[in-house]
Structure formats: C-alpha cells, structure tokens
C-alpha cells in the first residue's frame, strides 16, 4: 500500500497573500511557500489509501481516507505534524510532482507542471473553497475511515474516480 498526502490546509490565509494568477506566470519551482500552499485545491484525493501492484507498478485507488483527513472539509486535521503522525504521508515538492504518475489529473500541481491552467472550480479561481466540492472534484461524502479496517479489507473499497478528471 502506498499512501500519500499533501498540502490541503492553511490555504485561506496563504491564498490572500499570493499574487494574482501567479500560477499562470510562475513555474512550480518559482513559487513562494505561500503560493505553493495556496495552489492546493483541497480536493483530498491524494489522501486516499492506494495500492501499488509490485509487479506492474499499477496504482489501485480506494475510498479509504487517511485517518487524518477530515471527510467534510477534505483537509488534513494536523497538517503541521502530519509526517510525525502518518509516516507514509508524502509531501509534494517539485521533483515529486514531476515523477509521481498517480497524482490525480485534476491536481493543481500536476496541471501547472503540465503547463495547463486551473479549472473554474479551483478556489484560487472561484474565490471560494466550496467550489471544489460543488463540482464533485473533492472526496467529500465519498470516503470511509481507515480505522478498524485491515489491509486485507482494502480490496473491498477499490474505486476509479480519484484517477478521473
Ligand atoms: S497525513 Fe494529512 S496530508 Fe498526509 S495523507 Fe493524511 S490527511 Fe493527507
Ligand atoms: S490532489 Fe493535489 S490539489 Fe488535490 S489535495 Fe492533493 S495536492 Fe492538493
């Protein structure tokens, strides 16, 4: 199992500090820390548990959320200490965005890396964090908690929607 997660919180304050449309004029590597955090759309898709086929490398997504993911806000409930509490949480950086093929196609970091613009529902575009949920992009209402589940149970919760655009 590979579990990954990234910056889903602390966006409201950082977004206000970010320059307008910075994602259209800067590469990921040129962004400030505040801009980097603001770029996360808060979808929570990367905070779902997933399996990797050891032979083929294929990723299989589940609807099982990381134990720190708030299923309503789709934000990490302890972003600051996430690596201490969830050792296999993967923090994104420029190199990982370029190399992690499993990043959801809607992920803002992936979009910018590919030279694309953000979608209308991205909070930086819409001005509200609710649109990522209203557009059906986030994991809100579509996850179950991992507590109490054994790894052998995970195959019962396979989904394909995290990989869809
Ligand atoms: S620790 Fe937080 S950021 Fe990391 S996968 Fe879990 S919910 Fe996501
Ligand atoms: S998939 Fe990308 S945009 Fe969505 S929460 Fe994860 S890092 Fe943020």
Walkthrough of the structure:
With 165 residues, the protein is α+β, with helices and mostly antiparallel strands. The chain has one domain (2-163). The protein is 25% helix and 11% strand. The chain has eight helices and five strands. It has helices spanning 11-17, 22-25, 33-39, 82-85, 94-99, 108-113, 123-126, 131-134; strands spanning 2-3, 48-52, 59-65, 144-145, 158-159. Strands 1, 2, 3, 4 and 5 form a five-stranded mixed beta sheet that branches. α1 (11-17) packs across α3 (33-39). Mean pLDDT is 89; it is low at 1-13. It binds iron/sulfur cluster (SF4) (2 copies). One iron/sulfur cluster (SF4) is lined by residues 3, 5-6, 8, 47, 66, 68-69, 76, 82, 86, 89.
Please describe the structure with a list of short key phrases separated by commas or semicolons.
165 residues; alpha+beta; five-stranded mixed sheet; 25% helix; globular; disordered N terminus; binds iron/sulfur cluster
């Amino acid at each position: 199992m590979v579990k990954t997660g990234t910056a889903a919180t602390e966006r409201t304050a950082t977004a206000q500090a970010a320059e307008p449309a910075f994602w259209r004029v800067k590469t990921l590597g040129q962004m400030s820390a505040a801009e980097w955090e603001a770029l996360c759309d808060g979808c929570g898709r990367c905070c779902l548990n997933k399996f990797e086929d050891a032979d083929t490398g294929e990723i299989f997504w589940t609807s099982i959320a990381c134990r720190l993911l708030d299923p309503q806000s789709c934000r990490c409930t302890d972003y600051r200490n996430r690596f201490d509490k969830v050792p296999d949480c993967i923090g994104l950086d420029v190199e990982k965005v370029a190399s992690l093929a499993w990043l959801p196609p809607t992920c803002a970091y992936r979009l910018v890396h590919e030279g694309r613009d953000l979608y209308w529902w991205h909070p930086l575009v819409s001005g509200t964090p609710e649109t990522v949920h209203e557009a059906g992009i986030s994991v809100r209402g579509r996850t179950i908690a991992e507590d109490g589940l054994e790894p052998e149970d995970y195959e019962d919760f396979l989904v394909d929607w995290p990989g869809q655009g």
